[in-house]
Amino acid sequence: MIKVLLAEDQGMMRGALALLLGLEDDIEIVAQVGNGDDIVPKALEARPDIALLDIELPGRSGLDAAADLRTRLPGCRVLILTTFGRPGYLRRAMEAGASGFLVKDGPVEDLAAAIRRVLAGERVIDPALAAAALSAGPNPLTQRERDVLSAAVDGATVADIAAKVHLSPATVRNYLSAAIGKTQTRNRMEAVRAARQNGWL
Q1: What is the 3-state secondary structure (H, E, C) of the chain?
Q2: Of 186, 78, 195, residue with least CA distance to 139
Q3: Where in this chain does the record put each HTH luxR-type domain (predicted)?
Q4: Which of 65, 98, 153, 191 could be cross-linked to 183 through a Cys-Cys bond (beta carbons 3.0 to 4.6 Å apart)?
Protein backbone atom coordinates (compact mmCIF):
# COMPACT_ATOMS: atom_id res chain seq x y z
CA MET A 1 0.00 0.00 0.00
CA ILE A 2 1.12 3.56 -0.76
CA LYS A 3 0.74 5.58 2.43
CA VAL A 4 -0.38 9.16 1.80
CA LEU A 5 -0.58 12.23 4.02
CA LEU A 6 -3.12 14.76 2.77
CA ALA A 7 -2.80 18.48 3.61
CA GLU A 8 -5.76 20.59 2.45
CA ASP A 9 -7.43 23.40 4.40
CA GLN A 10 -10.92 23.07 2.87
CA GLY A 11 -12.66 20.33 4.82
CA MET A 12 -15.01 19.25 2.02
CA MET A 13 -12.19 19.06 -0.53
CA ARG A 14 -9.98 17.17 1.92
CA GLY A 15 -12.76 14.68 2.67
CA ALA A 16 -13.57 14.18 -1.02
CA LEU A 17 -9.91 13.61 -1.94
CA ALA A 18 -9.45 11.17 0.93
CA LEU A 19 -12.59 9.28 -0.08
CA LEU A 20 -11.72 9.11 -3.79
CA LEU A 21 -8.08 8.16 -3.27
CA GLY A 22 -9.13 5.62 -0.65
CA LEU A 23 -11.10 3.79 -3.36
CA GLU A 24 -7.82 2.96 -5.11
CA ASP A 25 -6.64 -0.59 -4.27
CA ASP A 26 -3.05 0.45 -3.56
CA ILE A 27 -3.49 3.84 -1.79
CA GLU A 28 -4.15 4.41 1.90
CA ILE A 29 -4.66 7.86 3.48
CA VAL A 30 -2.73 7.59 6.75
CA ALA A 31 -3.08 11.22 7.90
CA GLN A 32 -5.10 14.34 7.08
CA VAL A 33 -4.29 17.91 8.16
CA GLY A 34 -5.91 21.27 7.51
CA ASN A 35 -3.10 23.48 8.82
CA GLY A 36 0.44 23.84 7.45
CA ASP A 37 1.94 23.80 10.96
CA ASP A 38 0.67 20.20 11.41
CA ILE A 39 2.25 18.71 8.27
CA VAL A 40 5.72 17.83 9.57
CA PRO A 41 4.64 16.57 13.03
CA LYS A 42 1.91 14.39 11.45
CA ALA A 43 4.32 13.10 8.80
CA LEU A 44 6.90 12.16 11.45
CA GLU A 45 4.16 10.29 13.30
CA ALA A 46 2.45 8.56 10.33
CA ARG A 47 5.57 8.04 8.12
CA PRO A 48 3.80 8.40 4.75
CA ASP A 49 5.40 7.48 1.42
CA ILE A 50 3.83 10.55 -0.22
CA ALA A 51 2.80 13.93 1.21
CA LEU A 52 0.08 15.48 -0.94
CA LEU A 53 0.25 19.18 -0.07
CA ASP A 54 -1.76 22.27 -0.92
CA ILE A 55 0.30 25.49 -1.07
CA GLU A 56 -1.88 28.11 0.58
CA LEU A 57 -2.70 26.79 4.04
CA PRO A 58 -3.29 28.43 7.42
CA GLY A 59 0.03 28.50 9.32
CA ARG A 60 3.00 27.42 7.22
CA SER A 61 2.66 27.10 3.45
CA GLY A 62 2.90 23.72 1.76
CA LEU A 63 6.12 24.93 0.11
CA ASP A 64 7.78 25.62 3.48
CA ALA A 65 6.62 22.23 4.78
CA ALA A 66 7.97 20.51 1.64
CA ALA A 67 11.45 21.90 2.29
CA ASP A 68 11.25 20.72 5.91
CA LEU A 69 10.08 17.24 4.93
CA ARG A 70 13.06 16.85 2.61
CA THR A 71 15.44 17.13 5.58
CA ARG A 72 13.30 15.66 8.39
CA LEU A 73 11.75 12.74 6.47
CA PRO A 74 13.81 12.15 3.29
CA GLY A 75 11.94 8.92 2.43
CA CYS A 76 8.70 10.86 1.98
CA ARG A 77 8.13 12.28 -1.49
CA VAL A 78 6.14 15.50 -1.91
CA LEU A 79 3.43 16.09 -4.50
CA ILE A 80 2.00 19.62 -4.60
CA LEU A 81 -1.70 19.83 -5.50
CA THR A 82 -2.98 23.39 -5.78
CA THR A 83 -5.69 25.60 -7.21
CA PHE A 84 -3.04 28.17 -8.07
CA GLY A 85 -1.06 27.13 -11.13
CA ARG A 86 1.49 29.94 -10.89
CA PRO A 87 4.92 29.61 -12.50
CA GLY A 88 6.68 31.04 -9.43
CA TYR A 89 5.01 28.42 -7.22
CA LEU A 90 6.25 25.63 -9.48
CA ARG A 91 9.84 26.93 -9.33
CA ARG A 92 9.66 27.27 -5.53
CA ALA A 93 8.16 23.78 -5.18
CA MET A 94 11.01 22.25 -7.20
CA GLU A 95 13.58 24.20 -5.16
CA ALA A 96 11.92 22.85 -2.00
CA GLY A 97 12.43 19.30 -3.26
CA ALA A 98 8.89 18.47 -4.45
CA SER A 99 8.65 15.52 -6.85
CA GLY A 100 5.45 16.68 -8.50
CA PHE A 101 3.17 19.66 -9.06
CA LEU A 102 -0.44 19.37 -10.25
CA VAL A 103 -3.41 21.72 -10.36
CA LYS A 104 -6.71 20.64 -8.81
CA ASP A 105 -8.85 20.75 -11.93
CA GLY A 106 -7.67 17.35 -13.27
CA PRO A 107 -9.46 14.00 -12.82
CA VAL A 108 -8.77 11.95 -9.67
CA GLU A 109 -7.46 9.08 -11.84
CA ASP A 110 -4.63 11.37 -12.98
CA LEU A 111 -3.85 12.19 -9.35
CA ALA A 112 -3.72 8.51 -8.37
CA ALA A 113 -1.44 7.82 -11.36
CA ALA A 114 0.77 10.77 -10.37
CA ILE A 115 1.10 9.40 -6.82
CA ARG A 116 2.27 6.04 -8.23
CA ARG A 117 4.71 7.72 -10.63
CA VAL A 118 6.19 9.94 -7.91
CA LEU A 119 6.65 6.90 -5.66
CA ALA A 120 8.47 5.19 -8.55
CA GLY A 121 10.94 8.08 -8.61
CA GLU A 122 9.50 10.10 -11.51
CA ARG A 123 8.87 13.84 -11.60
CA VAL A 124 5.26 14.70 -12.43
CA ILE A 125 4.53 18.28 -13.50
CA ASP A 126 1.46 19.80 -15.11
CA PRO A 127 2.71 20.32 -18.72
CA ALA A 128 1.03 23.70 -19.31
CA LEU A 129 2.45 25.02 -16.06
CA ALA A 130 5.94 23.73 -16.87
CA ALA A 131 5.87 25.66 -20.16
CA ALA A 132 4.64 28.82 -18.41
CA ALA A 133 7.37 28.54 -15.76
CA LEU A 134 10.07 28.27 -18.41
CA SER A 135 8.82 31.36 -20.24
CA ALA A 136 8.29 33.37 -17.03
CA GLY A 137 11.93 33.11 -15.92
CA PRO A 138 13.20 33.08 -12.33
CA ASN A 139 11.83 35.08 -9.41
CA PRO A 140 13.47 38.52 -9.64
CA LEU A 141 12.87 39.36 -5.97
CA THR A 142 15.48 38.77 -3.27
CA GLN A 143 14.45 37.05 -0.02
CA ARG A 144 14.47 40.41 1.82
CA GLU A 145 12.30 42.03 -0.87
CA ARG A 146 9.85 39.13 -0.55
CA ASP A 147 9.84 39.50 3.26
CA VAL A 148 9.08 43.21 3.00
CA LEU A 149 6.34 42.72 0.38
CA SER A 150 4.78 39.93 2.46
CA ALA A 151 4.68 42.26 5.45
CA ALA A 152 3.02 44.92 3.26
CA VAL A 153 0.15 42.63 2.20
CA ASP A 154 -2.51 44.16 4.47
CA GLY A 155 -1.65 47.76 3.66
CA ALA A 156 0.74 48.10 6.62
CA THR A 157 2.65 51.35 7.05
CA VAL A 158 6.41 51.53 6.50
CA ALA A 159 6.86 51.74 10.30
CA ASP A 160 4.72 48.59 10.79
CA ILE A 161 6.68 46.70 8.14
CA ALA A 162 9.99 47.83 9.65
CA ALA A 163 8.96 46.56 13.08
CA LYS A 164 7.76 43.25 11.65
CA VAL A 165 10.89 42.47 9.62
CA HIS A 166 13.37 44.09 12.07
CA LEU A 167 14.75 46.67 9.65
CA SER A 168 14.94 50.47 9.68
CA PRO A 169 12.16 52.39 7.88
CA ALA A 170 14.73 53.72 5.37
CA THR A 171 15.87 50.19 4.51
CA VAL A 172 12.25 49.06 4.15
CA ARG A 173 11.62 51.94 1.71
CA ASN A 174 14.67 50.87 -0.33
CA TYR A 175 13.45 47.25 -0.52
CA LEU A 176 9.92 48.36 -1.43
CA SER A 177 11.28 50.64 -4.13
CA ALA A 178 13.43 47.84 -5.55
CA ALA A 179 10.46 45.41 -5.51
CA ILE A 180 8.21 47.96 -7.26
CA GLY A 181 10.87 48.41 -9.95
CA LYS A 182 11.40 44.69 -10.46
CA THR A 183 7.66 43.98 -10.70
CA GLN A 184 7.21 46.98 -13.04
CA THR A 185 4.37 48.35 -10.95
CA ARG A 186 3.47 51.81 -9.63
CA ASN A 187 3.18 51.23 -5.88
CA ARG A 188 3.65 48.61 -3.18
CA MET A 189 0.09 47.22 -3.33
CA GLU A 190 0.43 46.65 -7.08
CA ALA A 191 3.84 45.07 -6.42
CA VAL A 192 2.26 42.72 -3.83
CA ARG A 193 -0.50 41.81 -6.29
CA ALA A 194 1.97 41.17 -9.15
CA ALA A 195 4.27 39.11 -6.92
CA ARG A 196 1.32 37.00 -5.73
CA GLN A 197 -0.02 36.43 -9.24
CA ASN A 198 3.38 35.15 -10.31
CA GLY A 199 3.77 32.96 -7.22
CA TRP A 200 6.82 34.91 -6.01
CA LEU A 201 5.45 35.42 -2.48
Answers
A1: CEEEEEECCCHHHHHHHHHHHHCCCCEEEEEEECCHHHHHHHHHHHCCCEEEECCCCCCCCHHHHHHHHHHHCCCCEEEEEECCCCHHHHHHHHHCCCCEEEECCCCHHHHHHHHHHHHCCCCEECHHHHHHHHHHCCCCCCHHHHHHHHHCCCCCCHHHHHHHHCCCHHHHHHHHHHHHHHHCCCCHHHHHHHHHHCCCC
A2: 195
A3: 134-199
A4: 191
Provide the whole-model pTM: 0.71
Q: How far is Cα 154 from Cα 109, in angstroms, rounded to an integer?
A: 39
How far apart (Å, rounded) are the C-alpha atoms in residues 54 and 133?
A: 19
**Chain centroid offset of residue 137 CA:** 18
Query: In angstroms, what is the C-alpha Rg of the chain?
Result: 18
Q: What angle do CA 45, 10, 117 make, to 5 degrees?
A: 60
HSE-CB for 94 with a 13 A CA cutoff: 17
Q: Is 75 exposed, middle or buried (0-12, 13-18, 19+ CB in 10 A)?
A: exposed
Q: What is the pLDDT of residues 10-46, one digit of tens each?
A: 999 999 999 999 999 999 999 999 999 999 999 999 9
